[in-house]
Amino acid sequence: MTTTAANARQARQLGSIIALACLALVLLGIIGMVVFPKLVQRNVSPVGGPFTLTTQTGARLSDTDLRGKPFAIVFGFTRCPEVCPTTLWETTEALKMLGSDAAKLRVLFVSVDPTRDTPEFMARYLQSFDKHITGLTGTETEITSIGREYRIYYKKVPTDDGDYTMDHTATMFLMDADGQFEGTIAYGEEMATRVQKLRRLIGAAT
Are strands 181-185 and 172-175 parallel, antiparallel or unpaired? Predict the structure, then answer.
């Protein structure tokens, strides 16, 4: 084979490779134009999702009932020795600092111990905290479902006296008026930062 023929063959091979590469780029572009807008439009929140639970008054409350108003949601149980009462007390103080704006926000306290936390027991427990805090409980299946939606951890832990306590995520999740994730408040976070985050959440809804 002459040098000229070899060069011509290499040129044809290179041309084929370039053509295939261009075709692949075009196909990727088409896929991107079709798929990416759908992913953006879907606007999937990293935490949160559908749920229906029972409030401390015995009424049923679902995620769709919350649309139009931002909310903060935290998980715990009424027999919690420290983390839950501390979180609810700090939330009560933060709501006081919000003044009239507190009415623009809902705060949900979801029990991870539904066997013991009946609506009646939740109602008595929450009397010590701000009136804007709604207690939620339900069946084991319902609590498992909302726990999965909010990607929390909770586990029943036996105690030496034959009873049990609960380990659980202590983070408070902040959700906007459309039920989309906006941020978190960590357990023990400074009050000024806590109030600032709640004000920002309320402001985003106006």
Answer: antiparallel
